Amino acid sequence: MPLAGPVVEALGRHRPADRAAFVFPDASRYRLRHGYLRALRHAREAGYLVGLDLRGPHDLRHTFATWLEDDGIPARVIDELMGHAPARRSPWAAGAGSAMGAVYRHTTTGMEARVIHTLATRLAVALEVVDSLR
After folding, report:
1. Rounded CA gap, 61 and 77, in Å?
2. Per-domain residue ranges for the chain?
3. Quick one: which of 55, 108, 121, 132 is 20 to 30 A from 38 by CA?
4. pLDDT tens, position by position, 29-73
C-alpha cells in the first residue's frame, strides 16, 4: 500500500512494540473510533464538516477513494489498492476494463507515485485545517 510521507512519519512516531498491531489492531479499534468521533465533534463545533453524514473511521476509506478518483487515478488502480475485485464489463463500469484484462494489467510505480503525491497534497490541506482549529 503506498503511503504519503506524513503517514509514514506518524506511523514511525506511534510504532507499537508488536508490529502486528498495525495489521491486527483488534484492541485499539475502540480507541480509533472514539478518537475519530471526538475529532469529528471538535471539527463540527468549529464549523467544519457540517452537513456531512460521517459515522466512523470507515469514512476514511471513502475519503481515500474519492481523493484518488478526483485526482484522476484510474478506477481499477483504486479498486486494487482497496482490495476490491476488478469491475466486470457493464455500461456503468466504462474505463474499468475487463476482468480478464485486469489479470494482465498491474499498478505501475508511476501510478503509485501519483497516488502518494495525491495523498500527500490532500493531507497537507487537511493538516492546515487541523492547525487552524488549534
Report:
1. 14
2. 5-133
3. 121
4. 677 888 889 989 999 999 988 888 888 888 888 888 888 888 888
